[in-house]
Amino acid sequence: MKPYPEAYIEYLLYFHAQRDYFECHEVMEEFWKEHPGDARSRTYVALIQIAVGMYHIRRGNRNGAVKMLQSAGRNAEAPYVLSLGLDPDKLQELLNQVWSSIERDEFLYQDINLPITDPELIDFCIKECERRGLKWQAPSLMEDELLIQKHTRRDRSEVINERARQQQIRMEKGGAR
């Protein structure tokens, strides 16, 4: 198997086994922040947005889901998606299919699986799931309120303070939005 970032492997396990999209987001965001010069930076953002979109869908926040999935599609740069063992065309197709079905009010929640093309990566993830007592591509436990509402229980003060700081910087530069 070609080398992949450890955080990316964790992301895949949360995404495809535990269906814990909040943890997907947390793991990938931390990695992204720690590697600001990485060429795959926008693609890491796309992965974060896919996870955020999925937890918005699961909670019924349709507008938030569409916004995240559309943005993920724009950020998922094909060469870098491919370098992470994913099929860029199938990923775009999947994202387009999900967000457009939400907009048409035709989407009933269902888990999605990222289009992994590297058989060694899939094999590694399956074995790692078995080692952890998890099942690869297990369905979401929709009755698990802790899982479904997890992101609403976190401390958001750091995020709120950073947004306010960025807004203040924009205002001082005369570009208030």
Would you spell out the secondary-structure blueprint of this structure?
Elements: H1 6-18, H2 21-34, H3 41-59, H4 62-75, H5 78-83, H6 88-103, H7 119-132, H8 145-148, H9 157-172
Helix pairs in contact: 1-2, 2-3, 3-4, 4-6
Description of the molecule:
- There is one protein chain.
- The chain has 177 residues and is an all-alpha fold.
- The protein contains 9 helices and no strands.
- The chain starts with 5 loop residues before the first helix and ends in a 5-residue tail after the last helix.
- The model has no long low-confidence stretch (mean pLDDT 86).
- Pfam families: DUF309.
- It comes from Paenibacillus alginolyticus.
- This is DUF309 domain-containing protein.
SSE succession: HHHHHHHHH
The total of beta strands comes to 0
* Uncertain residue segments: none
Count of helical segments? 9
Helix content class = 55-70%
Strand content is: under 5%
Q: Given the C-alpha coordinates, what overall shape results?
A: globular
Give the overall pLDDT as a whole number: 86
The major sheet is characterized as: none
How big is the Rg? 17 Å
Termini Cα gap:
46 Å
| Assembly context of the chains | single chain
Pairing-aware structural class of the strands and helices?
Answer: mainly alpha
